[in-house]
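name: query_chain
kind: protein
chains: 1
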Amino acid sequence: MRTPLAVLKTQIAWRREQQKNNVIEPGFLTKLEAQVDSATRHTQQMLQLARVEHHNAIQVEAVPVLGVVQAVVLSLQPFSQRRHMDMGLAQGAGIDAATRVWTDAGLLQQVLENLLDNAIKYGRTEGVITVHL
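structure:
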């Protein structure tokens, strides 16, 4: 957690120096935003891990799987677009808005976010990522 935050602090300090000299770095805010997004994801992962380690916090319920998957895919679209990747959802014939799975909704979301985040990070630029349900 400290490393992404240290990078952010360094970038902010660097930008302040550039601002004094009226030098504008193209793409600075985009890079800074990506670092903040990364730190946010790492924080969410650590919180989920703490939650899993405390077994009482897991709440299994009937979760509408299509809605969760759609929300995760949409939330990560900006990251896939930055890498010119086509990310989407292939919905099987038996899957609709009423389809439920027994799981912890937060953990399902975290697993999907981790899988798609890895696909975006380590997949080839201009690749295709498809979640099949």
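note: The chain has a mean pLDDT of 84.
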